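#data-curation
PF: Archiving a pair of folding outputs for the training set. Convention for this channel: one message per protein, sequence first, structure tokens after, nothing in between. First:
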Amino acid sequence: MSTGVLLRCPPEKRATDTKPLETIRNAVNRATRLIQDLLDVARLEAGRLSVDRGAEQTARLVKDAAELHRALAEAKSIQLTIAIADNAPPVFADGDRVIQILSNLLGNALKFTPGGGQITLRAEPVGQMMRFSVSDTGSGIPEEDLPHLFEPFWQAHAGRKQGTGLGLAIVKGLVDAHGGHIWVESSPGVGSTFFFTIPTTSMAETADSVSMRW
């Protein structure tokens, strides 16, 4: 429809009215995200969801992910804060994929947190793993829904269009591909916290050392 509007407009109006172009761009971006999600699910089901791992600074990943969602949080009057342990070591990870994981979790938190709420993104070392978490003050998740959260295409409210139902399944696949673990804790009416772990570089070095001895 926006393309049709542009084609019918005289050239001088096309140069000043950018709203149809913005609509087209947003639609293309949504379609691109959906296609990428479908490709990731296909790779996940085929056992080919790969990650290109290397040393990545934990603080940079957390800050970059938070900044991607800062404007939306402010628009909804939601306080978005980050908390990074002072002794947070680098992680052995695919940086782009970790930001994708955090972005999916932050996007969900923003979707289900009402205006005036709070979202906190944390990162802290636990042994040789880095534990990330995204906490919100949203409506929480019913206990009976928790076992299904990471299933592809599953949604808690079938009548409400809250996305494709692919995000959390992809998140779990990416965490698993890194050798980590993901879980959620939630209290209806209070909020939810999604946790996941990623190996640190020290764990990768230990694994390489054991491999060399063998």
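PF: Second:
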Amino acid sequence: MKVALVTDSTSDLPKPLRERLGIRAVPLYVNLGGRVYRDWEEITPEEIFRKVRQGEAFPTTSQPSPEDFLKAYQDALAEADHVLSLHISAKLSGTVQSAELAAQSFPGRITVLDSQAASLGIGMMVLRAHELLAEGQSLKEVLQELERIRRDHFVRFSVATLEFLKRGGRIGGAQALLGTLLGIKPILTLKDGRVEAAGRARGERKAKEEILKDFKAWAAGRGRIRAFFLYSAEEQAVKELKELVLSSGLPVEEALVSELGAVIASHTGPGTYGFYAYSL
């Protein structure tokens, strides 16, 4: 059985990589200044941040419609027997619900999976699924591996300001970090598909050291680890974090470095950096 992969734009997989692997991504939407833009296609994070700095109201985002997914599934099923569709956490977006509605038009031919993640947390699962399918593993085996990764992975990130998360209503249990003292960097994670506080640190360097300490605790006793680094607008911050992680002495390899797309960046703001990781 040939299985095609569909995801959404919040997986933040670079377009050339997706095209090379034959992975379809259904775009979410950014609403800014009275216009609606397709994520990764019609607007960049830099444009959003510039317009907000110039006085534009903060952006809002919206999920794809079931019709958007219907078209993607029709195209995918023209080339495959089944579709595995992996998406942003249902606690952050209604994207999974749109996918499930569209899937009803193709009984038994679409498997929709809530990643309970965002950005490269989805992307790493999509890439792992592609790898296993290319090796000839069955859909059942692939789903078992994705469930394992969903249960057991590492994610930490930091933002320059909590204002974007607050305005977008995605702050979850990180609410307690609002009003932190100047110079205090919030350290965030995703837990059960929601943004939660994982700690705080005074200054940029200390925040990266705290993230590394948490990672070492998670990585203890594991074999090969793949790390997926993400950033928004300012790549230097993630470069420094990446150097700390890769020089930690742990069996970790850089799998991908990618900038956040416009939808995720609309909720995290500029200066965001962090990474996801899973073990093999």
